[in-house]
Amino acid sequence: MIASIFNKTRPFNYVIIGTLLLIAFVSYSFSHETFTGWQGFLYGVFYFATIVASCFLVNFIALKNNLSRNNNYAILLFFIFLLFFPTIFKNKSILISNFLLLLSLRRLISLKSMKNTKEKIFDASFWIFLAALFHFWSILYIILVFISITLHVSRDYRNWIIPGIALFSVVIIFFIFNIFSENQLLEEVFTKTYISFDFTYFENVYQNIALAVFSSIGFLFFIYMIMSMSSKPMNMKTSYKKIIFSFLLGIAIYIFSAGKNNSCLAFALAPLAILGSNFIENQENKIIKEGTFYLLALLGVFFFLCQL
Predict the structure, then answer these.
(1) What is the Cα–Cα distance from 2 to 7, expressed in whole angstroms?
(2) Alpha carbon distance, N-terminus to C-terminus of the chain
(3) Which of 139, 187, 189, 239 counts the most CB atoms within 10 A of its CB?
(4) For 40-49, 91-100, 263-272, which range has the lowest pLDDT when averaged over its residues?
(5) How far is 54 from 95, CA to CA, in rounded Å?
(6) DSSP code per residue over the chain
(7) pTM above 0.85?
């Protein structure tokens, strides 16, 4: 049922995802009193819009670059993974940082067209450094820029300099705003620049179980993509490699992040959703397809309700 509904890109599918996402966001926000008062309401609208934009950006990246077939599996999986870690809904800095990294990923994958490569490298680097201002360790994503340069345009030395120009641009913008904030922005950034390997942050046992289950699912989808890479079209292999590296960098951001919690895994959700969509759409047995979606959906709802 679920697989058959989302096996085509239909406008109705986006309505379903948008409605379910609104219900989940509002439910969690009310349960945890995340946004209170009129100002809180306006912030809530903004952050919800950021989540919706992230969902549709994942869908755009998957479909525009032929990373999945003509279906909405990626956006559905991204929504389900959000339910695993509902603390993402209240982590404002991670919501914004993850959205900026998705903008960067979109530009990096489009490098395969070999058009406007310098502009794309600059844009991708700019979004990454901007994302680092909201969640510092998202700066690790800059590694993906250099990987992309290596895969496509390594011979032109100017391409290696462009990320430095983007960094300089973001630094200038940052210090301009920092002056107006009386150095508050600088203090906020520096308080999050240390490395933390403290994994004892769990508020309840369900967060621990959700992480364990998610890790197993991530490992399955990751290994499947590695093993099936040889069967991918030659012109698509670089794009899939970027998704794989993106997933690994998302995990690395979680590992290094200060003030660690499950919401830091947000950076791994989008690439894993794309890897998962490949796994599911390549299953010829319809029972396995439907069963996989039903199992993931039930797990997502279960973990979401347990963490309300």
Answers:
(1) 8
(2) 27
(3) 239
(4) 40-49
(5) 9
(6) -HHHHTTS--HHHHHHHHHHHHHHHHHHHHHHT-S-HHHHHHHHHHHHHHHHHHHHHHHHHHHHTTSS-SSSHHHHHHHHHHHH-GGGGG-HHHHHHHHHHHHHHHHHHGGGG-SSHHHHHHHHHHHHHHHHTTSGGGGGGHHHHHHHHHHH-TT-THHHHHHHHHHHHHHHHHHHHHHHTTTHHHHHHHTT-S--------SSHHHHHHHHHHHHHHHHHHHHHHHHGGGS-GGGHHHHHHHHHHHHHHHHHHHH-SS--GGGGHHHHHHHHHHHHHHHHT---HHHHHHHHHHHHHHHHHHHHHT-
(7) yes
pLDDT tens for each residue of 272-297: 999 999 999 988 888 888 999 999 99
